[in-house]
Amino acid sequence: MPEVQQRKKESVSIAPAEGKLGVLIPGIGAVSTTFMAGVEAIKMGLARPVGSLTQLATIRLGKRTDGNSPMIKDFVPLAGLNDLVFGGWDIFEDNAYEAAAHANVLEAPLLEKVRAPLEKIKPMTAVFEKEYVKRIDGPNVKKGSKMERAEALLDDIRTFKRDNDCARLAMIWCGSTEVFHTPGAVHQTMKSFEDGLAKNDPDIAPSQIYAYAAIKSGVPFANGAPNLTHDIPALLDLSRENGVPICGKDFKTGQTFMKTLLAPGFKARMLGMTGWFSTNILGNRDGEVLEDPGSFKSKEETKLSVLEHILQPDLYPDLYKNLYHAVRINYYPPRGDAKEGWDNIDIFGWLGYPMQIKVDFLCRDSILAAPLVLDLVLFLDLAQRAGMRGIQEWLSFYFKAPMTAPGLYPEHDLFIQLMKLKNTLRWMKGADLITHLGLEYYD
Ligand SMILES: NC(=O)c1ccc[n+]([C@@H]2O[C@H](COP(=O)([O-])OP(=O)(O)OC[C@H]3O[C@@H](n4cnc5c(N)ncnc54)[C@H](O)[C@@H]3O)[C@@H](O)[C@H]2O)c1
Fold first, then answer.
1. Is the Cβ atom of 89 under 6 angstroms away from ligand 1?
2. Pairing mode, if any, of strands 272-282 and 338-348?
3. Which is nearest to 62 in space by CA: 394, 426, 428, 424?
4. CA-based radius of gyration for the chain
């Protein structure tokens, strides 16, 4: 039988998940309140954590014939839902209950049942600049230079940890999408970044100040939006130096989730594609912010990059070199958070005969995003306790534009991402990796 390469990690020691885990969230809006309200409802036994791998998924260990598939949460030591404590920042003063009511994702009877814990979550004053998110403005903002506001965030983090008696923290950006932005000179080193903070460099975005404060405090950081944020050399270096796991960008929830399910299938069967036209209508605050061309450009970049990487037109020019891929997002208030994502896909088969596929996903944005927030927070905390640092590629599963080491293209195929995630958990525990070779069953 051919030798199967099974890489085992000798000994990863994973610190136990003891004590409380503080979850710090810039952006107390639709996604974050749906996440927090959901966790409270689940703790009360009112609902199930549907959509969350950490709560519901199993992981196979050993051979298919072994019948050994524990729950992920029993296999690796994750923080429990009862140990989570929530906090965050927003430019509006609404507490999490009021913000959830405004977002109008959850129905009033459920929201009333979790009113008490949500009302206690009052947003801290935010670091905000209107040049980065043009369609909104609010009163609950910090004053001073960028360095002074960064120091105020560092202080918020320390105070939150102390006052809530947290053993550990994790931060996840659920704030609005900032305008498109590429790395500049100020983003290259920690020295240039800190000089830039002191000099109020306009190239430093608010989300970068949160990421800086988190990573500097040793707190893992995830980015749920497409902003550049911590995907810059200065913060990548700092995350490695400080032993902080990080990941991003842009939750993979509705249309792009569908794209990364379907496109690998067409490619696997060597079916060609000439066009993929995606349009969205949505009416929540996120949709309103995305009406601004700068914020839309950030979103468009992450949404467009997916097909190019999955289909590899350079390797398969006959099938994909002429692909026309367009993504549109339209703000349409009547739909609120219940988005409609339409896709028209033009494919071709044997002898070049054309076919069409139409997908109409009537989805709920925040309902799809909330379990991803939960999983990311729990997995980042696990990674830190396992001594992992820097970019966590195994969490690509959750993102439209997964962060990777410089020069490496991202893996977008959802099922490869899932295999990577589960194999990383097996690796952490020193279990055999699963290659799906399967020759051993036919010996
Ligand atoms: N819901 C999804 O399916 C999904 C998928 C991918 C990405 N996202 C991204 O997640 C983010 C949150 O989405 P949402 O629907 O909750 O939006 P939302 O508009 O309901 O909430 C965002 C909140 O962030 C606040 N905010 C903006 N800038 C801030 C700052 N500098 N500091 C603190 N708070 C700030 C806003 O006031 C708002 O309350 C958006 O960037 C969105 O693009 C959502």
1. yes
2. antiparallel
3. 426
4. 22
Tell me the best of 25, 31, 301 to mutate to test the pocket of ligand 1, counting ligand atoms within 8 Å of each CB and taking the most: 31
Q: What pLDDT score was predicted for residue 6? A: 45
Between CA 200 and CA 231 the distance in angstroms is: 20
Higher pLDDT, 374 or 293: 374
- Is ligand 1 within 6 A of the CB of residue 253? yes
Ligand 1 proximity of 94 Cβ (cutoff 6 Å): no
Query: Domains, the chain, ranges and CATH?
Result: 20-251+367-428 (3.40.50.720), 255-364 (3.30.360.10)
pLDDT band at 10 (very low <50, low <70, confident <90, very high): low
- Are the C-beta atoms of 281 and 161 separated by less than 8 Å? no
Ligand 1, pocket-test mutation among 176, 208, 250, most atoms within 8 A of CB = 176
Please give the distance, rounded to the nearest whole angstrom, from the Cα atom of residue 286 to the centre of ligand 1: 6
Is ligand 1 within 6 A of the CB of residue 31? Answer: yes
**pLDDT at res. 406:** 87
